[in-house]
Amino acid sequence: MAAMLSSIVRSPLNDPPVAGGVTALEVTDLVKRYPTGTEALRGVSLEIETGEFFGLLGPNGAGKSTLIHCATGLARATSGTVRVFGHDALDHYEEARLAVGLAPQELNLDWFLTLEETLDYHAGYFGMPKRERRERTRELLEAFSLASKKDDRTRTLSGGMKRRLVLARALMHRPRLLILDEPTAGVDVELRLELWRYVERINEEGTTILLTTHYLEEAERLCDRIAFINDGRIVAKGTSQELAAEFGVTSLEDAYLELVGRKELSRARAEVIP
Ligand code: ADP
Asked: Which of 16, 31, 68, 131 is the residue whose CA sits 20 to 30 A from 80?
C-alpha cells in the first residue's frame, strides 16, 4: 500500500522550520481540572521537536486525551500553557489550530456525506480556497487509495477505509503537527500494519507526529521518543532504551510494568503483532 503513495504531505506549509528551529509542541505546567473535580492533568510539561515521532503512552484514564484536547483547543486548561510551533494555543488560537491536524480515536465522520464532501468541508473550515481544496482532496483520496470511492457515502466504507479517511481528513489543511489519538485501538493486525506504514511515511515527509497509544509495541516500533503518562503526570520520557535504563530493566515492556503494574501491561500487549 505504501508504495502507492506519492507524496502525502509535501507542501509549502511543511517546509523545514525557519533557522534556529521551533519546537513543534511545547506544553508547560499544564493542569486540567474538570468541573466534576477530576484533575486529569496535574502539571504536565512536554516538548516535541519539529520532525519528531513522539509517543504518549499510558493506561486508560491517564490523561492522554485531555492533553490532546488542550493542545487542539477542544478543552481549556485550568492553568499552564500550550504553544504550537511557537503560537500560544489560546492567545493565537487560529495560528496554533492551523498547524495541527487531529485524527481522533472515534470515527467521527458524517455518515451522510461523500468522501469528497468530507474532505472538502473540512478544508473549507480551515479556510482553504476552493481550487486548492479540490486539488488537495484529489491528491489525498489518491494517496490513501480511496479515489474510486469519492462519491460514496462514508457510512458505506469498510472500517479500514474509514480509518484512512479520518487520517486523510486530518491532513487536508497540511498541518505541520499531526496528532493521532489511539489510531489503532480495536483495529485488526493487518489494518494496524497498514496504518503504521502511512504514518511512518507522513513522518518521513516532514510532519511531526504525536501518537497516543496504550500499545507498547506500537510505541516502540514507531516513536523516536516516548513519554509515559500516568494519573495526570508525565512520569518518564526518553527513547525506549533510555526508559528501560531509567527503570533499571532491559525493555520498554518491563519499564511499563514497573510503572503501571501487571494488569495494565496485559492490556497493553493484548494484540501483539507477530
Ligand atoms: P486517557 O485518554 O488517557 O484515557 P482521559 O484524558 O480521557 O484519559 O481522562 C483522564 C481523566 O479525566 C479520567 O479520570 C477521566 O475519567 C476524566 N475525564 C475525561 N474527560 C472528562 C470530562 N469531560 N469530564 C470529567 N472528567 C473527565
From this structure: 16
Q: Is 64 in the pocket of ligand 1 (CB under 6 A)?
A: yes
Could you tell me the distance, in angstroms and rounded to a whole number, from the CA of residue 249 to the centre of ligand 1? Answer: 30
Q: Is residue 114 part of a domain?
A: yes
Please indicate whether residue 66, judged by its CB atom, sits closer than 6 Å to ligand 1. yes
Question: The domain that contains 77 carries what CATH number?
Answer: 3.40.50.300
| pLDDT band for position 21 (cuts 50, 70, 90) | low
Q: Is residue 33 part of a domain?
A: yes
- The C-alpha atoms of residue 162 and residue 165 are separated, in whole angstroms, by 5
Q: How many domains does the chain have?
A: 1
Does 86 reside within a domain?
yes
Identify the residue whose C-alpha is closest to ligand 1 atom 24. Answer: 34
* Ligand 1 binding pocket includes 7 (Cβ within 6 Å): no
Give me the domain span that covers residue 72. 2-238
pLDDT at 59: 87
Closest-CA residue, ligand 1 atom 22, reads 34
Note the pLDDT tens digit of each residue in 181-209: 988 877 788 888 888 898 999 999 999 99
Model pLDDT, residue 189: 85
Predicted TM-score (pTM) of the model is 0.88
Query: Is 76 part of any domain?
Result: yes
φ and ψ of 125, to 5 deg? -60, -35
Alpha carbon distance 42, 228 (integer Å) = 14
